[in-house]
Amino acid sequence: MSIQEKTFEELLLEEEVLTQNEIVLHNDDVNTFDHVIDTLIYACEHTPEQAEQCAMLVHYKGKCTVKTGLLDDLKPRCSMLLEAGLSAELV
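and the corresponding structure tokens:
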């Protein structure tokens, strides 16, 4: 086995182990755009532009992945979104 093959094999194994979780925000008829944007800035550390784009995607597509990462980082962020009255889930 060459060094290149071994390195490629290790990379494939590493990709399998590092799975990314997502927070998916769902559309609702209750919250205003401003509230959704402000909450995304606070809970997910979005820039105002990112938050606005996510809010638009949620409105027109019905849902949007607003944050990806490790589960330990996403759980409290998802809780903040839920506590703010938004409809979000971890997947």
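(Above: one complete record from the training split.) The beta strands are 21-26, 63-69, 87-90.
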